[in-house]
Structures are given as structure tokens and as C-alpha cells.
Amino acid sequence: MLERILGTLGLALALAGGASAQSKPVKPKEPVSSGRTLSEWVEDLKAPAPQSRNAAAYEIAGMGPEAVAAVPALIVSLDDPSAAVRYPVIIALMEIGPAAKAAVPRLQQMEEEEINDEIAAAARRALKRIQAAPQPTPP
Fold first, then answer.
1. Where do the DSSP E strands lie in the chain?
2. Rounded distance between C-alpha atoms, residue 45 and residue 56, angstroms
3. For the chain (length 139 residues), average pLDDT per consecutive 10?
């Protein structure tokens, strides 16, 4: 009799533990590059050293469309005083693609007003990629 009670109690505890594990919200996995999360790289876009901001932008670019959460910070970084930062920021937006459409107005402005020809050309290429119509998937 005691064994049956203990067995039933163990089963009830196991079921209760499984139910509580299922009720916990699932946190979406954040993209990682070079052992650091996207949010850590986004924070580095504000670093004092331009080399750190440059590296952060290139790491974000390498994450491609998965880095969509970085778009607002990347738009802010388009105004970085260093061309060595603005260029990889544009590349990151280009690699994110159509999901970076919030950057279109600023990229259009850069295409027209940027004095650095390389950055203006990069803005033009990014606009083409971001504004490209999604390709239909083959049947």
C-alpha cells in the first residue's frame, strides 16, 4: 500500500514539474557571432573607439537577416563621425536586406549628400538590396 502511495505521489510530482516547465515562456534565441550575442555587438556600436564600432558593425553584418533587431541602432550609427564605421554599418543594413526598410530614408539621404563617394555608392547598393522585391520560392 505504501509503495502504491509513493508511486502515485512520484507520478503526480513528475507531471506537475512537466506542466510548470511547459508554462514558462520560451525566449527566442539571439544570434551569436564570435561568441557574443547580437545585443552585445549592438552595445559596441556606441564604444568610444572607432575600431570597436567598426568591428561591431562587421560582426552584425555577418549575422545577415537574423540581425534585424539591430536595425534601429544601425540607423543611428549611420551618423557616426568616422567613415570607417559608416561603411560597415551600411553593409550590415544591406546584409539584413528587406527587413531593414526603416533605414531607406536615411540611406537615400546619404546617397545624395554623402561626400565620401565609396559610402554613397555603398548606400546605393544597400538601397537596391533592401528595396528588392522578395523572390518567389520555386515549387
1. 32-33, 36-37
2. 6
3. 46 48 62 96 98 98 97 98 98 97 98 96 98 67
DSSP 33: E
Amino acid letter, residue 101: K
Q: What whole-number distance in Å separates Cα of residue 57 and Cα of residue 110?
A: 17
Q: Report DSSP state, residue 116.
A: -
Residue 131, helix vs strand vs coil: coil
CATH superfamily of 32-130: Leucine-rich Repeat Variant (1.25.10.10)
Please state the φ and ψ torsions of residue 126, each to the nearest 5 degrees.
-65, -40
Dist CA 84 CA 59 (whole Å): 14
Q: How far is 113 from 127, CA to CA, in rounded Å? A: 15
Give the C-alpha separation, 110 to 112, whole Å: 5
Instruction: Give the count of beta carbons closer than 10 Å to the beta carbon of residue 86.
Output: 24
Residue spans of beta strands (DSSP E) within 13-130: 32-33, 36-37
What nine digits make up the cell of 1? 500500500
Give long-range contacts, CB 8 A cutoff, 24+ apart: 108-112.
110/78, 110/86
